[in-house]
Amino acid sequence: MLTVEQVMSRPVVTVSMDASLSQVRDLFEREHFHHVIVVDDDGRAVGVISDRDLLKRLSPFVGSKLNERRQDENTLKLKAHQAMTRNPLSVTPTDAVQSAVDLILGHSFRSLPVLDRDGRPAGVISWKDVLRWGSIEGVWQGPDEEPNLFNLADDDAKRAA
């Protein structure tokens, strides 16, 4: 069984519940990713902030020299706990990748936090991680080449018939 741990991205980047949205925005811009896990004082995951969550909370005038007002600037002072999705769905490192894929597709997520048994972040798994793994492993090759996810299922169906 292919496990989440074999496919997930690490290291995990987290922010505290009291991190400002300005800090979250800077982190997204610097690290070039789209999700950050919010942790409590014990390092346990309590939420997730996506770049989309951030855009919903920030004024569209932030950074606009001509139109920015003090109230727009103040949206950058909001805290992570005010913008995060609380108690996000997650997977564990030992879960099957198929379970993560089912959650990602079933809920139209782009990624999921991977939490250890104590609820602390161990990684993140995204649809890009799954595709990257498949590409590295060669599972997307054509049917005349090595076995892949698509023709393995066909072979199993033929054997069962």
Notes on the structure:
The protein has 8 helices and 6 strands, in the order αβαββαααβαββαα. The chain is α+β, with helices and mostly antiparallel strands. It has a single domain (4-160), classed as CBS-domain (Roll), CATH 3.10.580.10. The strands form 2 sheets. The protein has a 4-stranded mixed β-sheet. It has a two-stranded antiparallel ribbon with strand order 5-6. Strand 5 (111-115) and strand 6 (121-126) form a beta hairpin. The longest helix has 12 residues, at 149-160.
Instruction: Characterize the largest beta sheet: strand count, sense, and whether it forms a barrel.
Output: 4 strands, mixed
Overall geometry: globular
Q: Which range best describes the helical content: under 10%, 10-25%, 25-40%, 40-55%, 55-70% or over 70%?
A: 25-40%
| CATH hierarchy, class | Alpha Beta
Enumerate the spans where pLDDT stays under 50 for 5 or more consecutive residues: none
Distance between the termini: 24 Å
The count of domains is 1
Roughly how many Å is the radius of gyration?
Answer: 20 Å
Please give the order of strands in the largest beta sheet: 1-2-3-4
Q: How much strand content do the residues show?
A: 15-25%
Q: Total helix count?
A: 8
